[in-house]
Design a protein that fits this description.
It contains 21 helices and no strands. The longest helix has 14 residues, at 39-52. 75% of the residues lie in helices and 0% in strands. The chain has 372 residues and is an all-alpha fold.
């Protein structure tokens, strides 16, 4: 039965700029509110400041930063653009406009802004990190690695460069190199749960399940509200044969995220292997509610129902799996076996023949046996 491993995460850098030397009351008030995390209030103050001084690049910049902080990326880009119009030589403004464009999925636009930021300040390592991210999203992972290496050259103590370099290397299939860079990122920042998580994913793929378990354990210690880390900790325990511990981890993941399909699915498999068929069916039911178009879930639920001799229901699940995937050889094989058990031999032979035609050797062997 297939087990699901969750995906990786990335880290991005951000530039902050402070314009403390100003006589304008509203600007000072806006900066104070921004520092307190009162972003909407700071936007109001900056807007008042702009009414009195509409030609201040600094005020547009700061308002753009406040808008970015509450997810108003389009508004932030508009303010950064106005700031650039008034002061086209500030690399930080291009940088932060690139960041807003990145989060809107405008990777080409972000790349252009990071290029400009680097043109203005070739020693700004953060611009190389984020330009690398934009290149990576555009599919230029080798070029992204070049940027991360440049960032490391400029600042060898920034964990984000090693982290994102590892992510690009992973995307290129360079798992050994990625593992080394995740490890270096952890040395520089041992408190980041995402780095342990991503290294854990890599260790699972490399078959290093004890190392993966250690990484996921550390990830949930650092962030107890990390459902993906609990789910993959369960996966590592599962692979190591500790099904009970795996179920506990999957349950914690579900507690944190009741819509995590992968946790229900993998817990169902672990429960099946411990002969907790009732619990497994409940988990598959929940998984189907979350995704009613996944053939594997119906197939696995059919298998459990077959184990408890609920053959008619098993046949229904195998049929649904076949409806969703007409080339699902194992589903034809098992549906044939269930039909055979209820005495519907003609239907069983037809299913085994179909499975055999799809390359299933077990079905071919069954057909030979019944012909004897």
């Amino acid at each position: 039965m297939k087990k699901i491993c969750l995906l990786l995460t990335f880290i991005i850098s951000i530039h902050y700029m402070s314009f403390g030397q100003t006589s304008q009351e509203y600007l000072v008030s806006g900066e104070s509110k921004y520092k307190l995390g009162q972003y909407k209030e700071s936007i109001e103050e900056y807007t008042k400041a702009l009414e009195k001084n509409p030609n201040s690049s600094a005020i547009y910049y700061n308002r753009g930063l406040a808008k970015y902080s509450i997810g108003e990326y389009i508004g932030a880009i508009q303010d950064y653009t106005k700031s650039i119009d008034l002061n086209p030589k500030d690399g930080g403004t291009y940088y932060n406009r690139g960041l807003a464009k990145f989060y809107l999925g405008d990777y080409k636009g972000a790349l252009q802004d990071y290029n400009k930021a680097i043109e203005i300040d070739s020693k700004d390592y953060a611009s190389y990190i984020n330009r690398g991210l934009a290149k990576s999203e555009l599919g230029f992972k080798e070029a992204a690695i070049d940027d991360y290496n440049k960032a490391i050259e400029l600042n060898p103590d920034d964990s984000k460069a090693f982290y994102n370099k590892a992510l690009a290397e992973y995307g290129l299939g360079e798992k050994k190199e990625a593992l080394q860079d995740y490890t270096k990122a952890i040395e520089l920042n041992p408190k980041d749960s995402k780095t342990y998580y991503n290294r854990g994913i890599l260790n699972i793929e490399m078959g290093e399940f004890n190392s993966a378990l250690s990484d996921f354990t550390k990830a949930v210690q650092l962030n107890p509200n990390f459902p993906e880390a609990f789910a993959n900790k369960g996966r590592a325990n599962d692979e190591l044969g500790d099904k009970s511990a795996a179920i506990k981890d999957y349950s914690e993941a579900i507690k944190l995220n009741p819509k995590m399909l992968e946790a229900f699915y993998n817990r169902a498999i672990a429960r099946t292997e411990l002969a907790d068929y009732k619990g497994a069916i409940e988990d598959y039911d929940n998984a189907i509610t979350l995704n009613p178009n996944n053939a594997d879930i119906y197939y696995n639920r059919g298998y459990v129902k077959y184990k408890i001799a609920d053959l008619e229901s098993a046949i229904q699940d195998y049929s649904k799996a076949i409806e969703l995937n007409s080339k699902f050889a194992e589903a034809y094989l098992n549906r044939g076996s269930a039909k055979y058990e209820i005495g519907y031999k003609e239907g069983a032979y037809a299913d085994w023949k179909k499975a055999s035609g799809l390359g299933n050797k077990s079905a071919a062997d069954l057909l030979k046996q019944v012909k004897k």
